Amino acid sequence: MKRSLSVLIAATPLLLAAPTASAQVPPPTLTGETLSSLGPETTSTSFNCDPQGTSTFTYQTSGVAAGPYPGTYSETGTVTLGPQVIPGGPPTGFLINWTASFTITSPAGTVTGTKTLSPLAPGQSPPAIGACTTGGQTFGAQRSANTFGSAQSLAYTATITLPGGEPFADSGTSKASMNDTPATPQANNFFETYTSERVTTTPLCHEDSQLDQNQVNNDQGCANP
């Protein structure tokens, strides 16, 4: 009997790998970023000055941002200082604290962050200084804070959000000075320089991003560590 041989070739479905996101190039850190303002855009908004005790004032400032994130900035902060009994010149005292929140608006991204005065390490000197006065016969009213020339800096943490919505983290230190002289507001000024402690910025979780997830849907409910 003659036999016939038949060959059955089964159709095997082609399995396609789910699309994965391309790596996002980290944006630059804030190293080299400067904030500057000259004039009444920097001013103290409230104050409680006690030259022999503890003084506190709040301020707001806005102006020009330059460096890796060129554009504009705005900032609000609170300064606390101790007795203003440092000899020589106008009354000044050592800073107890300096806290602030800032925003940099740039075509390169939006930077939002906070900063606070870092403590002195044992043996470090000199501390940062400031002034909070309402006027007097010799010196006029002034509210100021300055970390330049001191062993203290402002420690900052910041989130850098790229134009596409991808967030990255940065942290480091800054040196800053703020001066408000109500008698001559055109001379008010603010200046700050940033130095990151990181080699590169770190990507943060963005729940609607396809770049840090394997899922393809938005609102993924991810969380940063």
Could you walk me through the main structural features you see in this protein, from its secondary elements to its overall organization?
The chain is mainly beta. The chain has one domain. The protein is built from no helices and twelve strands. Strands 1, 2, 3, 4, 5, 6, 7, 8, 9, 10, 11 and 12 form a twelve-stranded antiparallel beta sheet that branches. The chain is globular and about 60 Å long. The N terminus is likely disordered.
Number of domains: 1
- Radius of gyration over all CA atoms, rounded: 27 Å
Helix content: under 10%
* Number of helices, where a helix is a run of at least 4 consecutive DSSP H or I residues: 0
Shape: globular
Number of strands: 12
Average pLDDT, to the nearest integer? Answer: 87
